[in-house]
Every structure is written in structure tokens, then in C-alpha cells.
Design goal:
133 residues, 7-stranded mixed sheet, 3-stranded antiparallel sheet, 1 helix, 5% helix
């Protein structure tokens, strides 16, 4: 993988760069992610907060007690998940210029998957939240 991944919103008003290696990447099926993205599953990749730089202004929404979600105020693209503790920044893989550069490592919150949505791989799964180590 390149040392720098780039991405943008649908209209191009917000662009971003992610430097270095990602911390983790995975699919989330929680209802909050479903509603935030308008999709049955969200695919995110996390980087240390200082590794992500953003060009343009995002709008943000406090989607839970633990995080903000950033989106483009012009086109509405869902771009980032930012936990309040600030130790990482999660990017929506679908907004990367080259999403194929990221390989998922896990499925989380699968208990909330939309009925009939079929997961057909051998990645680890968690019914609720993070996997146990």
C-alpha cells in the first residue's frame, strides 16, 4: 500500500490525505452506521488522528455519546468517524480514490445486519462491537 491514500467527497469540496499505515479496517453493521451512510454496511479504515489531513470544511454531527461523524456540507457525503477521545480518525473507504488499497480485517455489530444481507467471507465476526482479543 502507498504511504499516502487520498480521497474526497462526491462534489470534491472536501479532500483528504491519510499518511502511513492504517490501524485497522472493517465492516460495521450497527444501525447508526447504516443510518449515517444510507447503506446496509459501512466500511471504514482507521488511522492515527495526526496521520489524516483534510482540505476543505466538513460539517459534523454528534451521532452518539462517543463520536462525531463528518460529512460534506455541500453534497452530504459521509466522510469520517471521529471518536471523542481523539486517538484515531476513521475514513469511509468508499470515499478513497483507490478503495481497493484497503483490505477489511473484521465484521462488527453483525447482530444488527439487515435481514437477508449475506456475508460471504471468512473474516472474523463480532455480534456486538469490537472483537475480543
Amino acid at each position: 500500500m502507498d504511504d499516502c491514500l487520498q480521497g474526497r467527497c462526491l462534489c470534491g469540496a472536501v479532500r483528504y490525505q491519510c499518511h502511513g499505515q492504517p490501524l485497522k479496517a472493517g465492516y460495521c453493521y450497527c444501525r447508526t452506521c447504516q443510518r449515517a451512510t444510507g447503506a446496509p454496511v459501512y466500511f471504514g479504515v482507521s488511522f492515527p488522528r495526526e496521520a489524516v489531513s483534510v482540505d476543505g470544511q466538513t460539517a459534523r454531527y454528534r451521532s452518539s455519546a462517543r463520536a462525531w461523524r463528518h460529512f460534506c456540507p455541500t453534497c452530504g457525503s459521509s466522510l469520517f468517524f471521529e471518536p471523542l477521545d481523539g486517538d484515531y480518525f476513521e475514513v469511509s473507504v468508499a470515499t478513497l480514490d483507490h478503495p481497493e488499497a484497503i483490505a477489511a480485517q473484521v465484521h462488527v455489530w453483525t447482530a444488527s445486519a439487515i435481514p437477508g444481507f449475506h456475508i460471504d467471507d471468512t473474516l472474523p465476526r463480532s455480534l456486538h462491537g469490537e472483537l475480543d482479543d
